[in-house]
Amino acid sequence: LAEETALLSGTGTPPEITGIYNKASIGSQAKGADPTPSAIYKAFTKVRHTGFAEPSVVFLHPNDWQDIRLLQDGTGNYVWGAPSVVGPETMFGKPVVVTTAATEGTGITGDFAMYSELFRIGGIRLDVTDSHSDYFIYNKQVIRVEERIAAVWYRAAAFCTVTGI
């Protein structure tokens, strides 16, 4: 979850990486009066038209996905399928990643497959110790996990936020 949060919302101020929400020059689509799925499709269009890319995924906060998943038509039927069946985790054929690392009220889409890359420098480092204060006496252990990663966003126009969800 910490890694997802960094990749989506990292500020870019060392030691943080620059997450996609904070990447300069990415597109933005306001929801306005549109239903949320329509606003997301308009973001797809911006990625295609301005970024010359094909959106590969949509990231949404669980509360935002809940509102979409519970959309009903005029007769009370659920648009995304009845509650008794497994619903799709897609929008217009693109996978939806539901994560608390996403900013609530702001979805993001883009061509993560072609225009982003994650580099892992070294491996994951894991340290465990009981040698602090009285940790040995009370059988406590401290665990530290760290990794070094770099996120590269090759074409800012290949990504678009959807605000006001």
Sum up the structure in keywords.
165 residues; alpha/beta; 6-stranded mixed β-sheet; two-stranded antiparallel ribbon; 22% helix; globular
Ordered list of secondary-structure elements with their pairings:
Blueprint: H1 2-9, E1 27-30, H2 36-51, E2 57-60, H3 62-69, E3 90-91, E4 94-98, E5 106-110, H4 112-115, E6 116-129, E7 142-153, E8 159-163
Commentary on this structure:
This protein has 4 helices and 8 strands. 25% of the residues are buried. The protein has 165 residues and is of the alpha/beta class.
Question: What's the pLDDT, averaged over the residues?
Answer: 92
Q: The biggest beta sheet, please?
A: 6 strands, mixed
Task: Pick out the low-confidence regions.
Answer: none
Q: How many angstroms separate the termini? A: 22 Å
Describe the strand arrangement of the main beta sheet, using strand numbers.
Answer: 1-8-5-2-4-3
Question: What is the molecular shape?
Answer: globular
Percent range for β-strand residues: 25-35%
Helix content: 10-25%
Could you state the order of secondary-structure elements as H and E?
HEHEHEEEHEEE
Q: In angstroms, what is the radius of gyration?
A: 20 Å
